[in-house]
Amino acid sequence: MAWRALLTVVVIFIGAGYFAALVNVLAQNELVDGQPGLSAADLILKYAGKQVPVVAGKAPPSRMLEMIRTAMREYFDSDDDFRVLERWLTAGASREAFTSGPEPTPHDVVLTTCLRCHAADSRKEIGRKSPFGPDQFTVDYEWVSKFTLAPPPGATSVWRPPRDWRDLALTTHAHMLSVPVFVVLLGALFLCSGWPQGESRAAAVWRTVLACAPLVLFLADVACWWLARLPGVGWVFALTIGATGVLFGVAFGLQWIVVIGALWSMQSSKTNGGK
């Protein structure tokens, strides 16, 4: 009884952690294309990159706009500062509007908020990778414009590059060392359940396939993160990321349900057998 209770708590923790990961994926990726809700366009823009059409008076969905709405939102000193920068980005991120208008201007917000980390001399990785100026006192519009996708005069489209390879390498490293731990643990418990039942070769094959499916799908998902960067065909692998993610969730969820059911059906059988 004690072992079953302990394993049940562990499995519940794994399930809750996976659910939290799903929420995080949605929160961090749904605004890549500037529209709420995770879509195929989000995956293509983030992992493969894409030529985005230029619409007058409206900025293409830039990396900077995506980040201030998600991971960087917490670093703004006030909602007013956030709205100033968001309005500038959504209106086209023009050079003229960068330093004009009522205070604080977009320039002021970048100077007081973003340059804490995004200055080249900030001694922070983000400052070397995505600098907005040479130091913490000077904002260079030319540097900032690399992340706003402000189109040059007369352009009909602008290239939205995929996520930086350094960031992708860090994410790959973290996932490859952490995800297999709980995937293998749940897979081992799934094998102990004996489901699907039976001693036939077919049952054994299905048991093996279902046990290995989450890990294989996870590896395929990570591989597609990198293959999506291939020119011409990258969008195919970007869409495959969505497919492997869904299939992983189905296989992982099935294992989770089977393990929970097996833990307590076995306990129930023992209890009934002893009466």
Explain how this protein is built.
The protein is 67% helix and 3% strand. The chain is mainly α and 275 residues long. The chain folds into 2 domains: 137 residues; 110 residues, no CATH class. Strands 1-2 form a two-stranded antiparallel sheet. The radius of gyration is 24 Å and the shape is elongated. The two termini are 16 Å apart.
Structure in a nutshell:
By secondary structure, the chain is mainly alpha-helical. Helix content is 67%, strand content 3%.
Secondary structure: elements and pairs:
Blueprint: H1 2-29, H2 40-48, E1 50-53, H3 63-69, H4 79-90, H5 95-99, H6 106-118, H7 125-129, H8 141-148, E2 157-160, H9 165-193, H10 201-227, H11 234-274
Antiparallel strand pairs: 1-2
Query: Given the helix and strand composition, which structural class is it?
Result: mainly alpha
> What is the 3D shape?
elongated
Biggest pleated sheet: 2 strands, antiparallel
Give the SSE order as H and E letters. Answer: HHEHHHHHHEHHH
Question: Uncertain regions: pLDDT < 50 for 5+ in a row?
Answer: none
DSSP strand count: 2
Radius of gyration: 24 Å
Mean pLDDT: 90
Tally of helical runs: 11
